[in-house]
Design a protein that fits this description.
It is built from 4 helices and 5 strands. Strands 4-3-2-1-5 form a 5-stranded antiparallel beta sheet.
C-alpha cells in the first residue's frame, strides 16, 4: 500500500528592500555545520545573467555582514506582526508589570515618556 507523500509548498514571495528575513546557508546546513541560519535585511534584488533567477543581497543583522546572491528558496519573511505580538497582546489592565514581556514594558515606558497624558486607543 502506498501513501501519498505530504510536501510543504513555499508560496511565491517577492522580497523588497528593507524586509527582514530568516535565511539559511544551505551548504552549512546539509554539512551539519553550526551557524547556518541567520536573520538578515534585504538590500537589493537582481537577476543572475546566466540562470535568469532572481537573487537577493542581504545584510546579516547579527554581525552587519553582507551576504550576496541569496536564493529566495532559502529565505522566509519575518513579519512585523510576529515581532510585535508581545507588545500588541500586553495585558495593559494588569497591575503587575512583571506579567508583561520586557518589550511591552519598554514600549509603554517610551510612550509614557513622550506623552504621559494617555495611552493610545485600541485599533
Amino acid at each position: 500500500m502506498t501513501h501519498p507523500q505530504m510536501q510543504a509548498v513555499q508560496p511565491k514571495v517577492t522580497y523588497t528592500k528593507g524586509d527582514i528575513v530568516l535565511f539559511r546557508d544551505v551548504e552549512r546546513f546539509w554539512l551539519g555545520l553550526p551557524g547556518h541560519t541567520f536573520v538578515g535585511r534585504v538590500e537589493r534584488s537582481w537577476t543572475h545573467a546566466d540562470t535568469r533567477k532572481v537573487l537577493y543581497d542581504l545584510t546579516e543583522l547579527s554581525g552587519n555582514r553582507a551576504r550576496a546572491g541569496i536564493d529566495p528558496v532559502y529565505m522566509r519573511l519575518l513579519p512585523a506582526t510576529d515581532a510585535m505580538h508581545d507588545i500588541d497582546t500586553a495585558p495593559l489592565s494588569e497591575p503587575d508589570t512583571g506579567a508583561m514581556t520586557p518589550a511591552a514594558v519598554a514600549w509603554l515606558r517610551q510612550h509614557l515618556r513622550q506623552d504621559g497624558s494617555a495611552l493610545p486607543g485600541r485599533p
